[in-house]
Write a structure and sequence with these properties.
about 280 residues, ten-stranded mixed beta sheet, 10 strands, globular
Length: about 280
Amino acid sequence: MSADRLTLPAPAKLNLMLHILGRRPDGYHELQTLFQFLDYGDELSFAVREDGDIRLHTEIDGVPHDSNLIVKAARALQNQSACRLGIDIWLKKVLPMGGGIGGGSSDAATTLLGLNHLWNLGWDADRLAALGLTLGADVPVFVRGYAAFAEGVGEILTPEYPEEPWYLVLVPQVSVSTAEIFSDPLLTRDTPPIKVRPVPKGNSRNDCLPVVARRYPAVHNALKLLGNYTEARLTGTGSCVFGAFPNKAEADKVSALLTETHTGFVAKGSNVSMLHRELQDLL
């Protein structure tokens, strides 16, 4: 095993809006959403092994080693590329599970991009994103690394350039099941599609919010609390709640008031993933 480690970030994302257009025959939902990254996230370290083994050395409560998306991503890339090298992986986990900010998907994407670099595979973004889609609908946006308007099940991406404010993100101590929310009979599934680009300002609605707030009182309370200071929004299917501020000082001020009783963090919105900024420095 090499003593050299490559350490890369796995950034969080926000869904700045999420509209559900309908349900497809295969059970998945047609949606439109706007992704933006945060300069905040998990951190993964990699060291190449010569024996072909793939080992994640960080245990995650409730997630068996072989079920972790990091391990699945590494094995999928190893199999598809016929690479004989292996990898040791360490994870510094800060993003909550079931928070709607892309923790597992981002970790998987960082693994794909990191191993593509370390194993000298030379795969392009299209090929990596296609493999990522087999792991999860949100993985491709992290692989590509730019803010995007997403359609289909989230895999059809068009670059977007929303404003990059500072955000306060509150993290209710609940894990929301995406499958549970999308199977709720009260979920809105008939929102008319947005047909103009860029996405018009004011489209900040998340169709999942009423269902999540009804099922999870902690999310409802966080939305109400943050809503006293700014427009409070839900990212993805939750549980995380966020609000935008014009500068870090304003976000920090409200954070100091709210994080006495609620877990949360302040982060800068970014239209380019911090992972991709670091990868560019390696080239």
